[in-house]
Amino acid sequence: MRLILWRHGQTAWNLERRFQGSTDIELTDTGVAQARRAARLLASLKPDAIIASDLQRAAATAAELAAVTGLEVTHDEALRETYAGRWQGLTHEEIIERYGEQYAAWKRGEPVRRGGGELETEVADRAAPVVLRHAEKLPDNGTLVVASHGGTIRTTIGRLLGLDSHHWESLGGLSNCCWSVLGQGARGWRLLEHNAGTLPEPVLGDDD
């Protein structure tokens, strides 16, 4: 079984380095082109199911894969990006200027309600069970594509790998329309690819 966690394409707020959170922002023309390119690659992996956040940037990204695979997309608001309250709509610089102590605490791995919003663990609490529920419906050796958001994907990966939440930030971010791949190993889920923009390649000479 394989999970492909796919970040949405570019938005105008991404270019402006604005914190989007749960704000519903559409893709730019570049973002649509990114989604179409990525969809052609991911379609070759013959996914069995597609689920997506219902925010339009993720839904539109998923729609490009649906168009080339013929699969239907199941949308779920539990896959939305982290709600970040007063941080949403602010640029990176504005957040540091207005909420510098809170930002620094978050970067240190402390549980912080950014802008009065959700904790990262709460995002994982809502998103990871949805991914697992759909994964359970896959056929043997099946593939699930999850079109979502950078923060939600990172927290979901951290939860599925069993990492302490303090270390989730160490996974690093995903570029627009890149993806991470999780596969099932003998001791649970394992990270096979992270922030990939090309098709996964077999790992040679590892500990298998």
Automatic annotation (TrEMBL):
**Where's the active site on this chain?**
8 (tele-phosphohistidine intermediate), 81 (proton donor/acceptor)
Q: Which SUPFAM superfamilies match?
A: Phosphoglycerate mutase-like (SSF53254)
Pfam families per UniProt: His_Phos_1 (PF00300)
Signal peptide, first to last residue: none
Q: What's an example of a GO molecular-function annotation for this chain?
A: phosphatase activity
Annotated binding of substrate, by residue: 7-14, 57
Gene Ontology cellular component annotations, sorted alphabetically: cytoplasm
Superkingdom of the organism of origin:
Bacteria
Supply the PANTHER family for this chain: BROAD-SPECIFICITY PHOSPHATASE YOR283W-RELATED (PTHR48100), GLUCOSYL-3-PHOSPHOGLYCERATE PHOSPHATASE (PTHR48100:SF62)
List the protein's name.
Phosphoglycerate mutase
Source organism of this protein record: Streptomyces longispororuber
